Amino acid sequence: MRIIFLTAFIVLSALGVQAQNRVLIEDKDEIIKQATLELDNAMTGPEGSLFKAGQKNSITGEYNLQLTIRDKGQVVSVFVADKKDGNIPSQNRLKDEVLALQFSFKMPKNKDYKFNYIFKF
Fold first, then answer.
1. N or C: fewer beta carbons within 10 Å in the chain?
2. Cα distance between residue 54 and residue 94, in whole Å
3. At the top level of CATH, which class does the domain 25-120 belong to?
4. Rg for the chain, CA atoms, rounded
């Protein structure tokens, strides 16, 4: 029983250390710049998470999405501003993948930041 508690404590401690490593960014332009950089990396193959999701889910087309991010780098809303050569199923799969994203930085509490990003598959 002690081993279970000790193991749980170590795992939770390690997760807590990771959460504390998030850098606070307060400037809107810097937040958007960092988010764009992370999205660029996620879209770059062969290891990018969105690149892999696009291949796995057969996402095709070009989508201009308006993202809203908040607090701990969470994507809280996705709005399709425009699409080219895309289809509704691909669009919906992409929106689900983007909503699941977590950026590596945190922001001032109770502030939302909106920006557009073009996803090309």
1. N
2. 8
3. alpha beta
4. 17
Give pLDDT tens digits for 50-91: 999 999 999 999 999 999 999 999 999 999 999 999 999 999
Residue range 3-26, pLDDT digits in tens: 444 444 454 455 454 456 889 999
Q: What is the pTM of this model?
A: 0.79
CA-closest candidate to residue 63, choices 37, 45, 39, 34:
39
DSSP states along 56-109: HTT--SEEEEEEEEETTTEEEEEEEEEEES--HHHHHHHHHHHHT-B-SEE--T
How many whole angstroms separate alpha carbon 61 and alpha carbon 101?
20
